[in-house]
Design brief:
The protein is mainly β and 63 residues long. 11% of the residues lie in helices and 38% in strands. The chain has one helix at 51-57, and strands spanning 7-10, 18-24, 27-31, 37-41, 45-47. A five-stranded antiparallel β-sheet has the order 4-3-2-1-5, with no helix packed on it. The model has no long low-confidence stretch (mean pLDDT 86).
């Protein structure tokens, strides 16, 4: 399940990661670090689960 502030890639294009900024029903408002915006359906994105990518994006807390 994709939630607010998760990091995702558009399916088929892993050139740029996007942060989920808003969930509107089945649609997501996404923003990249360079402020590029996308609006896609949940079925059109893939959640990033690779810990090295998440660490690079700053979305992991180290304990």
């Amino acid at each position: 399940m994709i939630q607010f502030l998760d990091w995702v890639y558009p399916i088929g294009n892993k050139a740029k990661a996007y942060s989920v900024r808003e969930v509107i029903g089945n649609k997501l408002a996404l923003t990249a670090p360079d402020y590029t915006r996308l609006y896609l359906e949940m079925s059109e994105v893939e959640k990033i689960t690779d810990s090295s990518v998440l660490l690079e994006l700053g979305n992991v807390e180290l304990i």
